[in-house]
Design brief:
Alpha-Beta Plaits; alpha/beta; 302 residues; six-stranded mixed sheet; 14 strands
């Protein structure tokens, strides 16, 4: 059984189809990632699933409710962490939670009991009276996450939840997200951080130009689409060396002045670097980012 199921979703704007027959199924208690370059249709897909916009075609079931017809009822059991914090600077930390809780019709007694738990979860215990302007970026992001949990939702949609955060704040958010799935919550995550998706998501879908082009666990996608070892080489004279590498490796790509070599074993290729003092190299295991770039390309998207 899925907590979110979408079948044949389509949506066009000004004659341009931005979501082209998307199918999704998210299981209870999993962290599901939706990845894609800018303009791939991720945000539109999420807005369709939340019932914020109406599809041109297709069916959506969110927590057993047909969307958009009964989107309001479904959203009563949903939490949303938007891409950008929209906390009210005129209210304190606690007041931001109180105001949001009232949107769900929660009783004052229940709100009062819930706030200390959420502040503790967000690492903001004792900061309830603080003004929003006194918080760091990481604190604001954690408060936005806590606010999304005020109604004890079954599923939480997170749109790039760690963008702009330093590594310490990012790791704390990751720990909190893992604790949510351990408590049986379902997460739907969009992110541009491939490491984030690889660490957190049990399954993910890669979207490009309005379509799902790959789906599976991070490890399965890496095994299916990418050779296991990667060699990155850059420096003066890389072009001549690249020609030699092409004869030894099944796949060689260039991005700017960096050559990416993909192979089952890069050891024979590394031997060709002996004596190439101007070339620097890095040998590593293949990652989800390699899969993403192979499937969606290395060109910039605006």
């Amino acid at each position: 059984m899925s907590v979110l199921a979408a079948r044949g979703l389509r949506k066009s704007y000004a004659g341009v189809e931005v979501v082209c027959g998307v199918d999704l199924a998210v299981a209870p208690g999993e962290c599901f990632g939706l990845l894609g370059p800018n303009g791939a249709g991720k945000t539109t897909t999420l807005r369709l699933c939340l019932g914020l916009i109406t599809p041109d075609a297709g069916e959506i079931d969110l927590l057993g409710e047909p969307v958009p017809r009964r989107a309001r009822e479904a959203r009563a059991r949903v939490g949303v962490v938007p891409q950008f914090d929209n906390l009210d600077p005129d209210f304190t930390v606690a007041e931001n939670l109180v105001v949001f809780a009232r949107y769900f019709g929660m009783a004052a007694r229940d709100i009062e009991a819930r706030i200390p738990e959420l502040l503790e979860f967000a690492g903001l215990a004792g900061r309830g009276a603080a003004k929003i302007t006194a918080l760091s970026g990481g604190m604001k992001r954690r408060l936005t996450l806590a606010r999304a949990l005020i109604n004890d939702p079954q599923i939480i949609f997170m749109d790039e939840p760690t963008t702009g955060l330093d590594p310490q704040a990012r790791h704390l958010i990751w720990e909190r997200m893992r604790s949510l799935t351990q408590r049986g919550k379902t997460l739907v995550l969009t992110t541009h951080f491939m490491e984030e998706a690889e660490r957190l998501c049990q399954r993910l879908a890669i979207m490009d130009r309005g379509r799902i082009i790959a789906e599976g666990s991070p490890r399965a996608l890496i095994a299916k689409h990418i050779e296991p070892q990667v060699l990155e080489v850059h420096g003066p004279g890389y072009a001549a060396w690249m020609a030699r590498a092409r004869a030894l490796a099944p796949r060689v790509e260039r991005a700017g002045d960096t050559v990416f070599v993909y192979a089952e074993d890069v050891a024979p290729i590394m031997k060709t670097l002996a004596g190439e003092k101007e070339l620097a190299y890095l040998q590593r295991q293949a990652s989800l980012e390699d899969v993403f770039l192979k499937l969606t390309g290395r060109d910039l998207r605006d």
